[in-house]
TrEMBL record, chain B:
Name of this chain's protein: WRKY53
Record's keyword terms, sorted: Coiled coil, DNA-binding, Nucleus, Transcription, Transcription regulation
Lineage: Eukaryota, Viridiplantae, Streptophyta, Embryophyta, Tracheophyta
Stretches assigned to the WRKY domain: 160-222
Source organism of the structure: Glycyrrhiza glabra
GO biological process: defense response to bacterium; defense response to fungus; regulation of defense response; response to molecule of bacterial origin; response to salicylic acid
Pfam families named among the record's database cross-references: WRKY
Keyword check for Lyase: no
Length: 41, 314
């Protein structure tokens, strides 16, 4: 049980870190998109 | 365009990795439960359940984020393809070769990176984007055609329309519908220039020369001297340039310019209509290219995400 909990915690950390990166990427892409769009307009 | 379609960059997402631990302090719960007569085993079980629940929540959030990213990337690529289409339409205002190279390299990198991110989720978006990039290129290949009418002296029998460009005559023939011969010219200023010109006298009025231009010059105008027909009257240099009309469609575009009106040709050498193509400041184009290609944050984030993904998959 102890082991299972540790694994879960580890997995949770990993997925959360991945989420954070995805949010950062999304933010950058959105920013670029809006910049490009404003230039084209 | 409607500003409501702008992407909202504020993501209301909870990415706190230690939420479980903050909400449910382990020791506190254990002590409380112990005081209530519950065993340590049941506490662990509960903690595991909560962890599983949290993991599910974060995983769902992750999936949602990937989907969002896919949509945004698709939109971005579509917009970029529009930009490329615009650049194709206005080749004379295209980016400098170095920045163009940077742009293409960067876009290739971006595409490959995004493919990696979206692997298994939305691979089709990348292929769609590639196709959407191809279509405008095919459309721009269609030849642009423009026609210019030039009045000459009655005594002039030549088939020469001087427009400031250098032409090499490569053929002449007589067509059934017009007894006057038709001369074929090719732009000789640059070897790779694809522009061709046909010159023939009008059936209705033999004093009028009809010059038909096909294609688009890939070089600047060789001279700025005012062009005239063989008789010294007629058209100005600027108005004869067939490629200044920036119309592109699936069907070949025909631009007709009638310069046979004696009033306008006599009295307005300096005021003749000059076709202006849409102006885009060079620095704006550069700025666009730079924002697209040389954003270190963007690259870094992509690389980090992909490498992270790959490592986790392994």
């Amino acid at each position: 049980k102890e082991e299972s909990t540790d694994e879960l915690e580890e997995e949770l950390k990993r997925v959360t870190a991945e989420n954070k990166k995805l949010v950062e990427m999304l933010s950058v892409v959105c920013e670029n998109y809006n910049t490009l769009r404003s230039h084209l307009m | 365009m409607d500003c409501s379609s702008w992407i909202n960059t504020s993501l209301d997402l909870n990415i706190n990795p230690h939420r479980v631990h903050e909400e449910v302090p382990k020791m506190e719960v254990e002590s409380k439960l112990f005081s209530l007569g519950m065993t340590k085993f049941s506490v662990k079980e509960e903690s595991t359940d909560e962890l599983e629940e949290e993991l599910k929540r974060v995983t769902a959030e992750n999936k949602k984020l990937v989907e969002m990213l896919s949509v945004v990337c698709e939109n971005y690529n579509t917009l970029r393809s529009h930009l490329m289409e615009y650049m194709k339409r206005n080749p004379e205002k295209e980016l400098s070769p170095s920045s163009k190279k940077r742009k293409s390299e960067s876009s290739n990198n971006n595409n490959s990176n995004l493919m990696g991110i979206n692997n298994g989720n939305s691979e089709s978006s990348s292929t769609d984007e590639e196709e959407s990039c191809k279509k405008p290129r095919e459309e721009t290949i269609k030849a642009k055609i423009s026609r210019v009418y030039v009045r000459t002296e009655a005594s002039d029998t030549g088939l020469i329309v001087k427009d400031g460009y250098q032409w090499r005559k490569y053929g002449q023939k007589v067509t059934r519908d017009n007894p006057c011969p038709r001369a074929y010219f090719k732009c000789s200023f640059a070897p790779s220039c694809p522009v061709k010109k046909k010159v023939q006298r009008s059936v209705d009025d033999q004093s009028v020369l009809v010059a038909t231009y096909e294609g688009e010059h890939n070089h600047p105008q060789p001279s700025r001297m005012e062009a005239t027909s063989g008789s010294g009257r007629g058209m100005s240099q600027g108005s004869s340039v067939p490629c200044s009309a920036s119309l592109i469609s699936s069907a070949p575009t025909v631009v007709t310019l009638d310069l046979t009106n004696s009033k306008s040709s006599k009295g307005s050498k300096n005021t003749e209509p000059r076709k202006d193509s849409p102006k885009v400041p060079q620095n704006l184009v550069e700025q666009m290219a730079t924002s697209l290609t040389t954003d270190p944050n963007f690259r870094a984030a992509l690389v980090a995400a992909i490498s992270g993904r790959l490592m986790h998959k392994n």
